[in-house]
Amino acid sequence: MKRLSWVVLFTLGCLWTSMAVAQTAINPGDVIEDTANGEAVLYTFSATAGMNYLIKLESDDFDPLVEILNSDEDVIASDDDSGGFFNALLSFTAPTDGIYTIVVTSWSGSPAGVYTLSLSELALIPLVYDDVRTVELNGAEAMFFGFDGVEGEFVTITADSADDALDTELALFSPNGEEIAFDDDGGPSLEPAIVSVRLPMTGVYQVVLSPGISGTELNGTVD
């Protein structure tokens, strides 16, 4: 069985139901500050198949929830709290060329208040089998990794923290953007561990390392 792993060392311990009719175009590199008035707000962008995008939605006025719709208006990806402090941070790999819709809404109730939305192209941090990866952590946002997987292979992914008080989570996404594994406390000392997961297809997989408690500050290094 092939294994992906890294050690975390720290110095510190829905579906949308109502939406605005208007749709605004957003491009990679754009940062938009606007106000929601009790309805979901829609933005469209043109995506290239296989390209990774990062969508960040922040607000102090409501609990942000961001969703991605395909051309059939199906929700194909969403995020609530991966941005820390109850903000949304979503990594999205476009399965096909085309126009996609970003839905700005709220996890609870209707979105009302000022928000900031940004869209950027995302370069995944590379992982290889039997490798221990070291990265710098700064703040409460999730980090995104990528590796080439082959259908039928089994992988194990772990993260270990030097601070027992720190809570982190791991999620594994298939090349088509589907979450196929998640863990919070399944490893030793309640560390996250995704164990012996069979890869359903060949392609680039995403691994997301994120704070287990919204608002947790991650400051230090990941080995």
Structural commentary:
By secondary structure, this protein is an all-beta fold. It has two domains: 2-13 and 123-222, Jelly Rolls (Sandwich); 19-121, Jelly Rolls (Sandwich). The chain is built from no helices and 19 strands. The strands form four sheets. It has a five-stranded mixed beta sheet, with no helix packed on it. The chain has a five-stranded mixed beta sheet with strand order 2-4-9-6-7, with no helix packed on it.
| Oligomeric category | single chain
Query: What topology, given as strand order, has the largest sheet?
Result: 12-19-1-14-17
User: Which regions are unreliable across 5 or more consecutive residues at pLDDT < 50?
Assistant: 5-20, 213-223
Specify the overall morphology. globular
The CATH architecture designation of the largest domain is Sandwich
Order of helices and strands: EEEEEEEEEEEEEEEEEEE
The total tally of domains equals: 2
Top keywords for this entry?
Jelly Rolls; five-stranded mixed β-sheet; 19 strands; 223 residues; 2 domains; 57% strand; globular; mainly beta
Short description:
The protein has 223 residues and is an all-beta fold.
Give the helix/strand layout.
Blueprint: E1 2-10, E2 19-25, E3 31-37, E4 40-47, E5 52-58, E6 64-69, E7 75-79, E8 88-93, E9 98-106, E10 112-121, E11 125-126, E12 135-139, E13 143-149, E14 154-161, E15 168-173, E16 179-183, E17 193-198, E18 203-211, E19 218-222
Parallel strand pairs: 1-14, 2-4, 11-13
Antiparallel strand pairs: 1-19, 3-10, 4-9, 5-8, 5-10, 6-7, 6-9, 12-19, 13-18, 14-17, 15-16, 15-18
